[in-house]
């Protein structure tokens, strides 16, 4: 469960990104975060991985209050909540499989267990034939799938995706959405920031829409 209670975020200098935001997202939900550029979507996602701290209010993840979590607990939070960045952030000198493995090395899994997980994730993101490729040898859509694979390999309970279809053509965007939907169907909570009107309107999921740092809509089975 994700709970935002009266959360505000002001960046220096006096740049208000979020103003008194409250919402609750249950386990296994699929939620789109929409709104114009600068509305505050990425700020919400960064708050959820404690990449930044709120300037007001509280953020809970189950019974953890994220903004009070001691820094030694941060690795546990990042294992539970995984953010796929818009620009992928793949390691260019590592193969697809090695990029996905990065998460597991941090978690200290034994090699055999790690390898089984990686193979399973490569299947989920439909890259089972490209495990030995380097990111430079992949299309943008494939690179996005590697980033998603890396995010889920550690069994994250919550997958956050920031504009995962932002740089992709419509067909590739739908392939990515199918993979994210499948991951949600396996039980992972998904929060996806997007400008993609077609995708939001077709999926009829919950939509939280932001405008100038405030929630202007929060509806189930909604549209853009
Ligand atoms: N590091 C930062 N320093 C100062 N202001 C910032 C910073 N990051 C974001 N902001 C401001 O906070 C507001 C919200 O930004 P945010 O990145 O959350 O928007 P967004 O909804 O993700 O937009 P986009 O659709 O363009 O990605 C904007 O006004 C932005 O200028
Ligand atoms: Mg953004």
Task: Please describe the structure with a list of short key phrases separated by commas or semicolons.
binds adenosine-5'-triphosphate; 224 residues; binds magnesium ion; Rossmann fold; 7 helices; six-stranded mixed sheet; four-stranded antiparallel sheet
Report the principal-axis shape: globular
What fold name goes in the CATH topology slot? Answer: Rossmann fold
Calculate Rg over CA atoms: 17 Å
Bound small molecules, by name, code or SMILES, are: adenosine-5'-triphosphate, magnesium ion
CATH class: Alpha Beta
Profile the largest sheet.
6 strands, mixed
Structural class: alpha/beta
Sequence stretches where pLDDT stays below 50 over 5 or more residues: none
Mean pLDDT: 94
Count of helical regions: 7
Seen as an oligomer or otherwise, the chain set is: single chain
């Amino acid at each position: 469960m994700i709970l935002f209670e009266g959360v505000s975020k002001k960046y220096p200098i006096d740049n208000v990104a979020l103003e008194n935001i409250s919402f609750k997202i249950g386990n296994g939900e699929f939620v789109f975060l929409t709104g114009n550029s600068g509305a505050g979507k990425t700020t919400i996602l960064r708050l959820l991985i404690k990449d930044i701290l709120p300037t007001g209010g509280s953020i809970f993840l189950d019974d953890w209050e994220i903004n009070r979590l001691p820094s030694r607990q941060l690795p546990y939070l990042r294992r539970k909540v995984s953010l796929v960045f818009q620009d992928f952030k793949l390691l260019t000198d590592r193969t697809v499989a090695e990029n996905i493995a990065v998460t597991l090395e941090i978690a200290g899994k034994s090699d055999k267990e790690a390898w089984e997980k990686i193979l399973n994730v490569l299947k989920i993101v439909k890259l089972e034939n490209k495990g030995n490729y380097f990111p430079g040898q992949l299309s943008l859509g494939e690179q996005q799938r590697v980033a998603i694979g890396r995010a889920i390999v550690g069994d994250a309970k919550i997958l956050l995706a920031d504009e995962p279809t932002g740089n992709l053509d419509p067909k590739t965007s739908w392939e990515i959405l199918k993979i994210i939907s499948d991951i949600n169907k396996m039980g992972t909570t998904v929060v996806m920031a997007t400008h993609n009107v077609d995708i939001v309107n077709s999926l009829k999921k919950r939509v939280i829409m932001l405008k100038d740092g405030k929630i202007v809509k929060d509806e189930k089975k909604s549209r853009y």
